[in-house]
Design goal:
This protein has about 350 residues and is an alpha/beta fold. It has two domains: about 15-240 and about 315-335, no CATH class; about 245-310, no CATH class. The chain is about 40% helix and about 15% strand. The protein has 15 helices and eight strands. The chain has a six-stranded mixed β-sheet. A two-stranded antiparallel sheet has the order 6-7. Helix 10 runs antiparallel to helix 11. It is globular. Bound molecules: zinc ion (ZN). Zinc ion binds near residues 49, 178 and 323. Zinc ion binds near residues 49, 323 and 325.
Length: about 350
């Protein structure tokens, strides 16, 4: 639809319209390899070669290509210089940030799809968590990681301080909707212009998740071809799912608290007094014992008071991806191989 009057609008209004069309994106530091993002039994049916989506999601947004004025606006908070830090992530995965990557400091979040097989290169994520935090601070408006990686990070003593007061988006699960671009554009669920193909939805926002669920039911591949989305949305949209999300979030916050206590207990005055309730036996290192409902903090204890104020600010998210390829049809053997 042509709108010739657009040029006659005052410059500031035109620029604001361009700004409103820019996507809020999740830029991935590493490629989420389909088979690897689904290492957990619940995700056995996950089938997507997500590299395609990750790549599109890192390209300059469409608005940056309309005209000189729109490109100037799109570049307002984008730094295209090479990253300050380079780690062996380049060597292992060949996918870390480069000059061609587009990250908007005001709108975008940096995400790491770390999973357990990285342990072959990095002990409990050492090195790559630093990369995520430093790059996110320099270039983006926030950092995001998977819950499995968060669990690894809280096992590393040096990171307990880094996590103090830190706001982190934590992805509890990943679902890919295999659907054509046109209905996705019309839905507005993947950016106004369809160039935000990876979105992080508030895991407590069941209504929003249901919008993706119904989009998937209407436009996605049928469940007999791609069964993962239906079971995934059932899990996160049903009654009681919010309580489970809240439990998981508390669990993550408490794993930081309990690990910090274990690390510092020789330096804390009256360390046992920091808890009003603990598991029956306190092991050397908590491992499975840090389920938060077993550890009741004593809010009057000075060390505990300070730590409760400094707990990581975890925002639980669900990663929803739009893949316009037909992975479960084109690569059905990948899905069968994991069964
Ligand atoms: Zn796919």
């Amino acid at each position: 639809m042509a709108f010739p009057q657009f040029r006659r609008l005052p410059t500031e209004i035109r620029r604001e319209i361009w700004r409103q069309c820019l996507p809020n994106r999740v830029v991935e530091l590493d490629e989420p390899v389909g088979q690897l993002t689904a290492l957990f039994p619940d995700d056995a049916d996950y089938c997507c070669f997500s590299n395609h989506t990750a790549h599109i999601n890192r390209q300059p947004p469409l608005i940056s290509r309309v005209c000189v004025e729109s490109r100037t606006v799109a570049l307002e908070h984008v730094d295209l210089s090479p990253p300050a830090t380079r780690t062996t992530l380049d060597f292992a995965f060949g996918t870390s940030m480069g000059p061609a990557d587009w990250v908007d400091k005001r709108r975008d979040v940096l995400h790491l799809n770390y999973n357990d097989c990285y342990s072959a290169w990095y002990r409990e994520g050492e090195g790559v968590f630093d990369l995520l935090v430093s790059e996110a601070e320099a270039k983006a408006q926030g950092a995001s990681l998977t819950w499995a990686f968060y669990d690894n990070v809280t096992d590393v003593d040096e990171y307990l301080d880094t996590l103090r007061n830190r706001r982190l988006l934590v992805s509890l699960g990943v679902v890919t909707i295999h659907a054509p671009l046109q209905p996705a554009l019309e839905s507005g669920l993947f950016g106004l212009l369809g160039d935000a193909r990876v979105v992080l939805v508030d895991a407590n926002d069941t209504e929003r998740l249901k919008q993706y669920q119904s989009f998937c039911e209407k436009h996605g591949l049928p469940p007999d071809t791609d069964p993962h989305p239906a079971s995934f949305f059932n899990k996160y949209c049903q009654q009681g799912s919010r309580a489970r999300v809240q439990d998981r979030t508390e669990d993550m916050r408490f794993s930081w608290l309990v690990n910090s206590w274990f690390l510092n207990k020789d330096r804390i005055d009256d360390p046992e007094g920091a808890w009003s309730g603990t598991p029956e036996t306190i092991p050397e290192r908590p491992e499975e014992q840090w389920w938060w409902q077993r550890w009741v903090p004593n809010r009057e204890h000075p060390w505990m008071k300070d730590m409760l104020e400094a707990m990581p600010r975890i925002q639980p998210r669900i990663m929803v991806r739009l893949c316009t390829q037909r992975c479960p049809i084109e690569y059905p053997s990948a899905r069968r191989a994991r069964k």
